[in-house]
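Exercise: predict the structure of this protein bound to zinc ion.
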Amino acid sequence: MTNNCYALVITPHPDDAEYGIAGTVAKWVSEGKEVVYAVCTNGNKGTSDPNMKSERLAEIRKQEQQAAARVLGVKEVVFLHLEDQALEDTPEFRKQIVRLIRTYKPEVMATSDPYRRYIWHRDHRITGQVVLDAAFPYARDHLAYPDLLEAGLMPHKVKEVLLWGAENPNHFSDISDTYDIKMKALHCHKSQVGQHPAGWEDLMKQRYESLAEGKGFKMAEAFYKVDIWW
Ligand SMILES: [Zn+2]
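Solution:
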């Protein structure tokens, strides 16, 4: 029995992965590739409802994330249960991500681009940076965490990282056939999409169509792709 997966998706909050990469995830799953999600924070501040309490919201969002993952055929969802809006680039957080990489040994990782400028959720910026650092060099080097090695978590080389939310994407994934599944998964996040203004779905559709312009397919998710050669 192995934990190995093709792709390990690290999402700052429940729902980010559905916005960023769910169409690509559904495509991978349809090709027989195994995908694991890790959700960093509990999302317990993501509401404008004055009557909503943090504990209840965290539980709702966990269930919404599990439902979305089921729609997409994600193999496993790991919850790190960190506090929403409180992520920091700490040795502990980095080690948690290294532990996930060494456990699931992904070829591909995906997360939010840390280098989007100006207004960008702090948790997105921190998660992106920590994932890149964890993938290289910390997960690779056997001397980095002797205790993880002792626990049987061997070094692992990730081949590429896909960053969603990139200002200058260099990789476009064809989601023409999986857009509907992506939207179905996104709708599982009722506590979030319920707050959107009318017409948001049309705007999203237009955006994915415009990202595919000139690419030879109808709809695309866009990423900055980082290849790790060494
Ligand atoms: Zn988020």
